[in-house]
């Protein structure tokens, strides 16, 4: 059981006011706030321990390298990966998807090959595949949700043909909150010899993730949604897929030898990590993941399930509010519009006057918006530090919006 007040005291930003009102931060789907433990790690790393990694034998370089490389094991434990050697550090999920596109997909695909996507994908899990469509003639095959916003795993598998090389799928929709049964998709794809890339950006913060059980080939996470720093992230890659990859970015650290006429690569995972990395960002990510595991991922999931159920009930009582996505398997993400109201940006502005921070726009999911016949929505997304009282604050602010715009 989570002591929510004890949790909240660990986030300094939650004590501030916005427009004279206590901050009610419900934009966690875009980026989560940082606990004091992460802030302290960043301050210590920059203030007392900073040096470049992998490049020096002096004390500070040794400390930085040890702290940086220790995070690889932390990520492996967080995702239940078989080995830390299966973890590649990235700046976030966007870089991870581009790494997979350039490093694994591009060398093994040709015109007419297919990639299966759901209509719910974030642009980070769309645009890298469009690169292959434009440059190689790869075909993108789209699978739509049902009216509740659910994605049938069998519909995804039914879209697979003998030309399908990859299924690229979100674990949790950043707009609808729908939780996708990625394990069922991976089981079926493996039987068909098709690789699966899972975007775990919105899932890993809300629930335990076990990549060994899921059976995916790739699983990407981004640090700033995991209560860690921006510019940090990681991707799990199955060793047989990693062995098939070529480097995406060239430079220092990813090489073994460089000569005038030849170059040889470092061993994975360093083979795919060129240049000076986000040292302190990654160290901060390690602290954030340790913090989450100390709180307990099962307890985080249970707390947010309670918030989700409570928020669903409260929002359903507003008969003028249109909540997008009615999935029974839903993370703590709610996307909505108001009947007769102004644009989502106007709604967000009114909520901000009440101290409520929500997202407004297309949420980097334009194909889904087009599918739903919408130009924009507001999105309230919850984290471990949010409370039922903040759900009530959201509802009160929405009622004010309705009164203003009705």
TrEMBL record:
SUPFAM superfamilies: PLP-dependent transferases. Its EC number is 2.8.1.7. Its cofactor is pyridoxal 5'-phosphate. GO terms for biological process: cysteine metabolic process. It is an enzyme of class 2 (transferase). Gene3D superfamilies: Aspartate Aminotransferase, domain 1, Type I PLP-dependent aspartate aminotransferase-like (Major domain). Residues 25-394 form the Aminotransferase class V domain. InterPro entries: Aminotrans_V_dom (IPR000192), Aminotrans_V_PyrdxlP_BS (IPR020578), Cys_dSase_SufS (IPR010970), PyrdxlP-dep_Trfase (IPR015424), PyrdxlP-dep_Trfase_major (IPR015421), PyrdxlP-dep_Trfase_small (IPR015422). Keywords: Pyridoxal phosphate, Transferase. Belongs to the class-V pyridoxal-phosphate-dependent aminotransferase family. Csd subfamily. NCBIfam families: sufS. Catalyzes the removal of elemental sulfur and selenium atoms from L-cysteine, L-cystine, L-selenocysteine, and L-selenocystine to produce L-alanine. This is Cysteine desulfurase. The gene is csd.
């Amino acid at each position: 059981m989570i002591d929510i007040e004890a949790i909240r005291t660990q986030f300094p930003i939650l004590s501030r006011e916005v427009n004279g009102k206590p901050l009610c931060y419900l934009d966690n789907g875009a980026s989560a706030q940082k606990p004091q433990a992460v802030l302290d790690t960043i301050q210590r790393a920059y203030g007392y321990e900073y040096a470049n990694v992998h490049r020096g034998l002096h004390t500070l370089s040794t400390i930085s390298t040890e702290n940086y490389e220790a995070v690889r094991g932390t990520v492996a434990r967080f995702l239940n990966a078989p080995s830390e050697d299966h973890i590649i550090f990235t700046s976030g999920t966007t870089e991870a998807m581009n790494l997979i596109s350039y490093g694994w997909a591009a060398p093994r695909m040709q015109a007419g090959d297919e990639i299966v996507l759901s209509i719910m994908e974030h642009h980070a899990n769309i645009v890298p595949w469009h690169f292959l469509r434009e440059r190689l003639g790869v075909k993108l095959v789209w699978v739509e949700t049902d009216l509740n916003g659910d994605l049938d795993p069998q519909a995804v598998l039914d879209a697979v043909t003998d030309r399908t090389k990859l299924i690229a799928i979100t674990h949790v929709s950043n707009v609808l909150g729908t939780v996708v049964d990625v394990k069922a998709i991976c089981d079926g794809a493996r039987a068909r010899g098709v690789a699966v890339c899972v975007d775990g950006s919105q899932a890993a913060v809300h629930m335990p993730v076990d990549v060994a059980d899921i059976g995916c080939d790739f699983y990407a996470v981004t640090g700033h949604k995991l209560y860690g720093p921006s510019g940090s992230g990681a991707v799990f890659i199955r060793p047989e897929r990693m062995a098939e990859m070529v480097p995406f970015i060239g430079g220092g650290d990813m090489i073994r030898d460089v000569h005038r006429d030849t170059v040889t690569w470092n061993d994975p995972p360093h083979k795919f990590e060129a240049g000076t990395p986000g040292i302190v960002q990654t160290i901060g990510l390690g602290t954030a993941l340790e913090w989450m595991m100390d709180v307990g991922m099962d307890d985080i999931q249970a707390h947010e399930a309670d918030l989700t159920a409570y928020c669903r009930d409260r929002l359903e009582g507003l008969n003028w509010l249109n909540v997008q996505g009615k999935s029974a398997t839903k993370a703590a993400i709610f996307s909505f519009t108001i009947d007769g109201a102004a644009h989502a940006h106007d709604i967000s502005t009114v909520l901000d006057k009440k101290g409520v921070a929500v997202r407004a726009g297309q949420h980097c999911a334009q194909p889904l918006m087009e599918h739903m016949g919408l130009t924009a929505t507001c999105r309230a997304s919850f984290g471990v530090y949010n409370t039922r009282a903040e759900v009530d604050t959201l509802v009160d602010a929405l009622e004010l919006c309705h009164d203003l715009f009705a």
